[in-house]
Amino acid sequence: MPYEPSPFLRSLPLFTEDEHQPFRKSARGAMRGAALLVHGFPGTPADMRLLAASLASAGWDVDAPLLPGFGPQIITLPRRRYAEWRDVVVERVRSLREEHSRVIVLGHSLGAAVSVVAARREAADGYVLLAPYWRFGGPMSHMLWPLLRFFFKRWRPLRRADFADERIRNGLLAIIPDLQIDDPAVQAELRAFVVPTQLLSELRRLGIAAGREVRHLHAPTLVVQGIRDSLVKPDDTSRLVERLPSLRRYEKVDGSHSLPLPEGGAWERVSQAVLRFADEIASA
Predict the structure, then answer these.
(1) Tens of pLDDT along 141-172?
(2) How far is it, in rounded angstroms, from Cα 97 to Cα 46?
(3) The whole model's pTM is what?
(4) Rounded to whole angstroms, what are the CA distances from 42 to 72, 265, 281?
(5) How far is CA 198 from each of CA 60, 154, 171, 243, 249, rounded to the nearest angstrom?
(6) Which pLDDT tens digit goes with each residue over 60-95?
(7) What angle in degrees, to the nearest 10, is found between the helix axes of 110-119 and 82-97?
(8) What's phi and psi for 247, nearest 5 deg?
(9) How far apart are the C-alpha atoms of 82 and 115, rounded to whole Å?
(10) Contact 212/119 with Cβ under 8 angstroms?
(11) Cα–Cα distance between 52 and 34 in angstroms, integer?
């Protein structure tokens, strides 16, 4: 049966703030080039605004698109295919190439995977991969996934959620600021919320493609990984780094998965690493 969002989901004002919209930011001072910033899952361009400001101050024009199916379109996400995300990055790199002699791409998590896959079709002059996603679970999940998907067509991620947990509350309120989390009827709807396994399959396919295509990423590449990341494991990133033919640096920082944001715990280190790398590309 094709995925259809519930009436409850369709009624919610999701990611309505302006900060979640795609944006362009002009360079200040001497022009160095253009930087394409690709958000992660289930993020929006809001996650990239601090890095965008730092790069713009350093002389880079910044372009931060919203990937299809994210932000206000998130209820359509289960219908999306990773080729749609790849094509956005390909188109934006081509467009920036027409205006700038240097183009760098910075991707976070899923955005890093999309950037790697897009590079095969339209390469930039340098890449920054922050907590790059590429592995969908461990080896057993790869072997068992076809069987699991056959028996479990839908996944209910909030079925047993503790809505008193501040992490869960803050995560939901970041998406839906006016959500009445303490309302029993709202909690019942959230527990009934289903994610089709088709979406998980698409994320798995993207990870496999990124792990394959990274061997062809010949532009200089900076990889930054948080040692406290519970979503993209540091050991997995180390394995990915071994496949990179043009690794410039691999920096491990004392941070979580949210590397582009202050709450990730390593914002200064991440910002400094990105600006240093961008300067190297501009000077090459």
Answers:
(1) 444 434 334 334 556 777 788 888 887 887 77
(2) 24
(3) 0.84
(4) 11, 19, 29
(5) 38, 8, 23, 28, 35
(6) 999 999 999 999 888 888 889 999 999 999 999 999
(7) 60
(8) -70, 125
(9) 11
(10) no
(11) 11
Looking at residue 124, its amino acid is A
Exposure string of 2-14, with b = 16+ CB inside 10 Å and e = fewer, is ebebeeeeeebeb
Single-letter residue type at 128: V
Q: Is the dihedral of CA 176, 178, 182, 185 positive or negative?
A: negative
List pLDDT tens digits, range 88-121: 999 999 999 999 999 999 999 999 999 999 999 9
Please answer whether residues 128 and 149 qualify as being in contact, where contact means their C-beta atoms are separated by less than 8 angstroms: no
Hey, what are 146's tokens? 């076809």
Name the nearest CA neighbour of 123 among 137, 151, 102, 143: 102
- Across 35-39, 210-214, 261-265, least confident range: 261-265
11-49 pLDDT, tens digit per residue, is: 666 788 899 999 999 998 778 999 999 999 989 999 999
Cβ contact 255:232 at 8 Å: no
Q: For the chain, what is the HEC assignment?
A: CCCCCCHHHHHCCCCCCHHHCCEEECCCCCCCEEEEEECCCCCCHHHHHHHHHHHHHCCEEEEECCCCCCHHHHHHHHHCCHHHHHHHHHHHHHHHHCCCCCEEEEEECHHHHHHHHHHCCCCCCEEEEECCCCCCCCHHHHHHHHHHHHHCCEECCCCCCCCCCHHHHHHHHHHCCCCCCCCHHHHHHHHHCCEEHHHHHHHHHHHHHHHHHHHHCCCCEEEEEECCCCCCCHHHHHHHHHHCCCEEEEEEECCCCCCCCHHHCCHHHHHHHHHHHHHHHHHC
